[in-house]
Amino acid sequence: MEQKDNTLEKQLEILNAIEEVKVNHFFKHKVLQSIKQEQEINESSTLYAWFTPKLQWAVLALVICINVSVFYYAFNAEEQTSNSNNIEGFAQEYNLQTSTSLLN
């Protein structure tokens, strides 16, 4: 028991020997400012930091709309050309063409 008391007293003496640490009052403010500056540097250094998920979805929707409109235009233009070819073939078959040739 005496040994436990001795070790306990030694530990208490060691704790009493610890002096109070003097801290600068503005230490926290300085640390927070340096962290904020590092974050600003990191944010400005990333190239695509402005490309947020909302903007990514908007760009994706725009690309899909453009693709759909291109496919629609391509298939619609194909039908128009085939219709014009059919009309020309019909006119040739029934001699309904107008020609500007003087030999006809």
- Give the assembly state of these chains: single chain
Low-confidence stretches are none
Average pLDDT score = 81
Tell me the total number of β-strands.
0
**Percentage of residues in helical conformation:** over 70%
**How many independent structural domains?**
1
Number of helices: 3
Largest sheet, in brief, is: none
Q: Compute the CA-based radius of gyration.
A: 43 Å
User: Distance between the terminal alpha carbons, to the nearest Å?
Assistant: 134 Å
Q: What is the global morphology?
A: rod-shaped
N-to-C SSE series?
HHH
Give the DSSP E fraction (strand runs of 2 or more residues): under 5%
Structural category: mainly alpha
What does this structure look like?
This protein is mostly helical and 104 residues long. The chain has one domain. Helix content is 73%, strand content 0%. The protein is rod-shaped. The chain starts with a helix and ends in an 11-residue tail after the last helix. The mean pLDDT is 81.
Reconstruct the topology from this structure:
Layout: H1 2-17, H2 27-45, H3 53-93
Concise account of the structure shown:
The chain has 104 residues and is mainly α. It is 73% helix and 0% strand. Keywords: Membrane, Transmembrane, Transmembrane helix.
Supply the key terms.
single chain, 104 residues, mainly alpha, 3 helices, 0% strand, rod-shaped, transmembrane helix
